[in-house]
């Protein structure tokens, strides 16, 4: 058994010089040695640890249905891997024009330190003052240091058969590769492990936001503090490496091949070639709120978006953070980015809607059809019934974003308003159809069979119009009473269904009333604080944004508002509940005018919503929706 002791050996070869020190541990390494102060690679539990700690222990027989893996398939266990941890100090950050000034190297295997190397290197050029202040390495210290050609062979000897480890490895490997090329020596191409990337792959960002060597060393409580000297930083990197390897046991990583694959799999995405080549498209984009349009080589609009900072948003499309495949495909086709600078976010959002509607870009999924909506309307016949259509008529309730949601409200309305459910056309005189089952159940007066004349049917039609126009919410109160009755009787499922239908109907009437009320106004002017002491201004006419502007801090807002009104777009109202405006734009304007501290400067005529519409039921409908989600019932 050789004597286990440490020896400091001074190099007498090419590394000879007063600035060179090599430390070698002369004791043999045993993969079974279990020193509790050293890192234990590959432990899977107490039983596994006991076997490794006693080479003579009997290994239990394990029966398995899987074929035994070969050693090649298992890979090299981490405890058998020699990690050569390297740190370089240089005269600058470019391996093409800067030079190495110091090399620090530590070889470890199985948690044991096998060798250390530390040497200054004559760079052949003066050390910049800022680098000297950072590292403490001066030109005087480098006087008499060995040249790169004398140091490099010893470094390469350590790298052969080892895994090269470095913190921010591309920096160190770049200088070492350049040194090999300069000295006309072959690069040994060792596997490379970057501890910065390993840390980002293993540690949650919330646990350690920074992966700088100093931050990681402090996080793990390492005994060595990095100080921008090569050997000290290499020793600190060794400790960080060991702590990181302790964290990968629960990831099933046992071999160096699995470790390197883990780092590759969890490495941050890089920008595509197309993204890198098109970064210049963001150069002239202003840092202001507005709308951006990506165009292809023919000038066709590919995508329309909006942002409070156009430059930052457009630039993000050309970074690694943009990982959506659909967007990357769009960027690959883009040849130009046009922008429309806006006064504030509201104007940008409205312009985005209008531009999407005008160009219908193929990469926009939302708001491609802002004018498309669904309405619940009474049919124009002697005995009207409710129908879902795409064009509003008198007595229309809506708009709804989908035919499905409109149909759900129609079904709820038929529970509240005694209109017929059948779809046959009933003649005004002498109807002779056979009554359906609903008549037998007492849910229809059978006007189709002449059992209910038109005069008796008209009050039901008027009830619908009064409900939609917000003149009478008696049908909603009747549905609410039905919910209470069923709940009191213990019919909870039936009460839940009635509750959901009432919530759908009340929300639909509320939405229709608020949007229609805004669209009827000839003009409404709003002012919202901009957060910097000024005001964001908007002029809305018949549900459309007619003008937008700003009154910066120190500028009187009223003269700006009057100037904005005089230059605002003339809007001619059209027939219909929304006076020709698109529902999405009216929703945006309503949300802005009623929230965020917006003050109404002017309204012509006065802005009012129906007293007996869906407004008084708004909070009830919201609570009903929340209750449905809590019980796992998805409203239709």
Automatic annotation (TrEMBL):
Alphabetical list of Gene3D superfamilies matching this protein: GIY-YIG endonuclease, Ribonuclease H-like superfamily/Ribonuclease H
Keyword Nucleus carried by entry: no
Alphabetized CDD domains for the sequence: DEDDh, GIY-YIG_UvrC_Cho
InterPro entries: DnaQ, GIY-YIG_endonuc, GIY-YIG_endonuc_sf, GIY-YIG_UvrC_Cho, Ribonucl_H, RNaseH-like_sf, RNaseH_sf, UvrABC_protein_C
GO cellular component: excinuclease repair complex
Region of interest (Disordered), ranges: 1-20, 603-636
Keywords on record: Exonuclease, Hydrolase, Nuclease
Biased composition range(s): Basic and acidic residues: 620-636
SMART domains reported for this sequence: EXOIII, GIYc
Protein name as annotated: UvrABC system protein C
Provenance organism: Pseudonocardia autotrophica (Amycolata autotrophica)
